[in-house]
Amino acid sequence: MLEDPTTAAPFPTAWPAAYPRGYAVVDVETTGLARDDRIISAAVYRLDARGEVEDHWYTLVNPERDPGPVWIHGLTSEALEGAPLFTDVAEEFSSRLDGRVLVAHNAVFDWQMIAREYARAEREAPVRQRLCTIALSKELGLPLPNHKLESLAAHFGVVQQRAHHALDDARVLAEAFRPSLRAAAAGSVRLPLQECRPLTEWRDTATTPRIGQQAGGYGGYSGYRQSSWRPSRKRPACPYPNPGRYEEGKRLKQGMRVAFSGDTSIERDLLEDRATEAGLHVATSLSRLTSLLVTNDPDSGTSKVVKARQYGTPVVDEAAFGQLLRDVEPASEP
Questions:
Q1: Measured between alpha carbons, how far is 54 from 149 in angstroms, rounded to an integer?
Q2: What is the arithmetic mean of pLDDT over 215-228?
Q3: Strand, coil or helix: what is 27?
Q4: How confident is the model over 131-178, as pLDDT tens digits?
Q5: Of 12-16, 212-216, 218-222, which range is least confident?
Q6: What is the distance, to the nearest Å, from the Cα of residue 125 to the centroid of all Cα atoms in its chain?
Q7: What's CA 193's distance to the chain center, in Å?
Q8: Is residue 186 classed exposed, middle or buried when 0-12, 13-18 and 19+ CB atoms within 10 A define those classes?
Q9: Cα distance between residue 244 and residue 256, in whole Å
């Protein structure tokens, strides 16, 4: 059992009944940051309702492709070549996550990478809620210089041994999460839990060479650069003029500008493709000209959600948008 590294968090006299009954502190290392990147190692610390460690698990994962920025995670093609595929570890991974809140530092990234791996394997991760320790540290008002994991660890006196190693990063986070959880319970702080929506569709568009194949770039790392990740693919311009804002109860109309914010249960590229094919203009940012914002979390406080409130832009969730896409009104004749 891990020793409590801080005395700053008082042990609460009464534990909040609404708090989760168990947590899975997760860290994954990946081939990069893009949608088509893959998990190459994963670690899970299972914690009980009060943040005490029950057990931990770690695995390498063969991504069936180039490992990406080795200078960050240290995992070479040779180290990963004999590792199990994600499909081989999916069941064990599921058993570690099942019935627990997923906890991670910048949790939306870890969750999206995990959800995509399960979608590729034609399975569904047994996770319904996640908790980001960055968001929790903000709720607690911790005096951190920034929101890096090492800053959170230093605040609670936790010593990092191998940064960007999934097992050690998960250990560090588990040790820092426990006093954070106790402080939240002592102050009756509402935990910033977010819903996890599993992907229901997946299309892999990666053309990166597999492990063992030669590629260009630094030492065969498929053109990766330390300061450059693959750009998103460019969509064709919408051929229709913008007819203005969407009005509740009416149909979408070709040419309307649609923006997206936050997680979606359908992979974002697929959802945007459907909007484009329906004749809508998919916008990467939100402005006064935006016809509609699609988000499953209207209280998230993202820049797009904030601007939508300021501009009075209509907001719908993904399910409602899916219904609207079934009957888009043709653009007006010029």
A1: 22
A2: 36
A3: strand
A4: 999 999 999 999 999 888 999 999 999 999 999 999 999 999 999 999
A5: 218-222
A6: 13
A7: 13
A8: middle
A9: 6
- Compute the distance between CA of residue 186 and CA of residue 199 in angstroms, rounded to an integer: 36
Give the amino acid at 16.
P
Tokens of residue 30, six digits? 């990946």
Rounded to a whole number of angstroms, the CA Rg of the chain reads: 22
Cα 216 to Cα 30, 33, 76, 219, 225: the distances in Å are 19, 19, 16, 7, 11
| Pairing mode of beta strands 39-48, 53-60 | antiparallel
Please state, in angstroms and as integers, the Cα–Cα distance from residue 260 to each residue in 28, 49, 98, 275, 305, following that order: 25, 34, 29, 11, 9
88 contacts: CB under 8 Å, gap ≥ 6: none
- Burial group, residue 43, by CB count within 10 angstroms (0-12, 13-18, 19+): buried
Place of tokens 């260009």: 216
Question: Which residues have a Cβ under 8 Å from the Cβ of 224 and sit 6 or more positions away?
Answer: 32, 66, 68, 69, 217, 218
Return the pLDDT at 233: 55
Contacts of 28 (CB under 8 A, 6+ apart): 39, 41, 42, 43, 110, 113, 114, 166
